Amino acid sequence: MTTSLPSKILKISNLKSHLNPISLPEYAAAIANLILASNNRDTLKSTLHSQNEWNPNLVHQVFKHLWNHGPKALEFFDALDVHPSYSHTAMAFDYAIDIASRMQDYKRAWKLLRRMRSRKLGPSPKTFAILMERYVSAGKTDKAVKVFLSMHNNGCQQDLSSFNSMLDVFCKSKKADMAYRLFKILRGRFRADVISYNIIASGFCLKKQTAKALDVLREMAEKGLKPTLTTYNIMLKGFLSAGQINEAWQFFLQMKKRKVEIDVVSYTTLVHGFGVVGEVQRARKVFAEMNEAGVAPSIVTYNAMVQVLCKKDCVQNAVVIFGEMLRKGYIPNATTYNVLIRGLCHARKFDAAEEFMDKMQVNCKPTFQTFNIMIRYYCDEGEIDKAMEVFKKMSCETCLPNLDTYNVLIGAMFARRKPDDLVIAGKLLVEMVGRGFLPRRFTVNRVLNGLMVTCKQKFAQEILRELSESGRLPYHIRL
Known about the structure:
With about 475 residues, this protein is mainly alpha-helical.
């Protein structure tokens, strides 16, 4: 007989409270699994209300587990929002607003913002930065600008910090030109500082427009503002990202000449930059030099070195560096494992990659990026069944798949040209939409047309109906 949802949560709650207490992350993961298994809103609400142990830390942990299942995350938020003794924090509202706007449910996002304001929890500049970022990601840049300009009408005054946040959103979305236009219009009003100029310079560097970045920094100097170490590191990274290796090295030598206090970020930037263009020996030399200069490598530096060796040298050398890192007392993070696992997969050492994935349980948990790496490489090798095994394991570990996971798997289902694979593609499409992801028009058309060609018209029509009822059907879908 199947155990009811209330009984399951009570069992977990008792486990946490008595002789064998489980950790907060484990408790949050267990609750997230139960929420995912629930198919009745009223029962879920009643069950969550029966628990009095809720606190902000636990709620935020559950949100993180549900991050890639938007509808369930918002269902969880709504259920606790009317809890008799627990009240959501500003951070919980920010999570919900971020998820709603990621799903392009802007009406709901703004409704949450107004509710947040009515409870005197904000909104804060961070809330508006979240909305701006989601609008920019969806290609609605005009809406993002309006969000910033209307902040004061929604209970939050614009200031230099929020101005910089807006510039940062546009620049990180590779819209540096628009950010610069806004910067020139509004910099007088907000008294732009070094951080403002650094953001714009970084935005141009991200687009490999180092000449424009230098112009911005000259302009900064003319305003009487002195560059910081961050300024120098931005340009150093910009030159390297643009493949301007000689310019980067000369710039680094100028930093030394000007007695700039070169830090671990500067050296890490050089290690990664030289490595990416295949200058492995120069990367190794810089790595050795930083130790001689009394600058200890960080875990980020080791991650860069591992990535360089995986991509441009030999994955076995990367494993050696990984071992050296452990012997020196560094604790690898998810990024360390991910770059090494990607390198092993690229070298077709899948067994070794899976061994390192298992080792992650000691220091950190596999992330959705970890699973996506394994899934992508198995698909590239034509090992669709193994990719699906990893996908199933992913869901079991409460590391929910994201949009990239579904796109990779759906695309792979067309490789073998099997009718059964296209049915799986259709089921994956329905599942991703059910989890709040908006599929590309190309993906939907490809799946539906594939099903039609393989005489699965009835299933195609069922999918079309479900997508239409969900409100997430892209325009111009045809059968």
